[in-house]
Amino acid sequence: MTDAVNSWLVAAAALLALGVGPALWGATTGPVRRRVVAQNLATLLVCLVMLLLAQGYARPAYIDLGLVLSVLGPAGTLVYARLLADELAANPPAARVTRGMTMLSVAAPPLVVVPLCVVTGPGRTLAKLLVIGALLTAGNTVSGRAVSAGACPPREADDG
Questions:
Q1: Are 126 and 117 in contact (CB under 8 A)?
Q2: Which segments in the chain show pLDDT lower than 70?
Q3: Which of these, 56, 57, 112, 121, is most buried using a 10 Å CB contact count?
Q4: CB of 87 within 8 A of CB of 35?
């Protein structure tokens, strides 16, 4: 028994190879400013891959994984931004990097979510997809801006 490779699986594989791979490389190497931005990008892309795999394999449970990741990914970036605030304030990401991340956060979710909404039709899955798209867009935009120096003040040292 073989599963047919469909366009959803091809898109997921391409996103893994061309997006998640480089994002994971960026999250594991280099300065803190690049690692935090790359981690934020990786969670966004992995969530989108989960949505594509859900459609490609006809497994709605993968959409639930995408929903969980759309909540936890940006929250994790905010935690890292807070914990690494001193290092990020001393050496913030370039403005073009944070601007690019914000643009990607706004553009990428609709590119994946809208076609999936059209294919799934009305129902609970459509509602989940719309919530995931909104969470990804808003959450990654907020967390991307939090990584920039202006929204991430250094922590005060405890004296006691």
A1: yes
A2: 1-3, 149-160
A3: 112
A4: no
Report pLDDT digits (tens) over 95-126. 888 888 888 888 999 999 999 999 998 999 99
What is the rounded CA–CA span in Å between residue 53 and residue 59? 8
Other CB atoms within 10 Å distance of the CB of residue 66 = 26
Domain ranges of the chain: 7-151
Q: Residue 74's closest CA among 147, 15, 18?
A: 147
**CA separation (Å) from 16 to 24, 61, 82, 90, 100?**
10, 19, 28, 32, 19
Is residue 158 left, alpha or beta, with left meaning phi > 0 and alpha meaning psi from -120 to 50? beta
Write out the two tokens for 76.
């994790």
pTM of the model: 0.86
Tokens 């956060």 sit on residue: 105
Within 10 Å of residue 127's Cβ, how many Cβ atoms? Answer: 12
